[in-house]
Amino acid sequence: MRAHNIGTMEQPIKQPGAMPGSPAGLTPYSGDWGTPQVVHLLKRTLFGATVQDIAFFKAMTPSQAVDTLLQPTATPASKPLNNYGADPTGVAARDLKECLLLQVQQIYPGEVLVQRIICDHLQSLAKRNYQ
After folding, report:
1. Exposed, middle or buried, 38 (CB in 10 Å: 0-12/13-18/19+)?
2. pLDDT per position as a tens digit, 12-40
3. Would you tell me how many other CB atoms lie within 10 Å of the CB of residue 69?
4. ∠ at Cα 58 (53, 62), nearest 5°?
């Protein structure tokens, strides 16, 4: 069984008379603020931490780090860019039909017959119905 250390990040000291669970009932963390503590905070609040994340938050105070993590981030562009470097055309398509159409448009621009086959007859081809 693990002993709780009063005054650490895991078990902060509560102020007398404060409502349970309220931010006013917690004293600011005043313990060590090194790599292990930063990694612990980032594991609890992010989907993992890079070396750059650790260095970024280690340069802050614990209160500044928590405030930064609680700030809302900017919303991404409304439509993601299709710029995936070495990935082939169509890799981010929503389905096979869209993937094939993107590839045909890049490899055979203006080839209407192939595009019509993909748009109108892909299900028949999948069922091996060649009539």
Report:
1. buried
2. 555 555 555 556 667 788 889 999 999 99
3. 13
4. 115
**How long is the chain?**
131
pLDDT value of position 75: 66
Amino acid letter, residue 49: A
Distance CA 129, CA 131 (A): 6
Q: What is the pTM of this model?
A: 0.41
Contacts of 24 (CB under 8 A, 6+ apart): 15, 18
Q: Which two tokens stand for residue 124?
A: 């028949």
Cα–Cα distances (Å) from 96 to 79, 93, 120, 123, in that order, read 20, 7, 13, 11
Report residues of the chain scoring pLDDT below 70.
1-25, 74-88
Q: Give burial (CB, 10 Å; 0-12/13-18/19+) of 117.
A: middle
Two tokens, residue 87: 């990935």
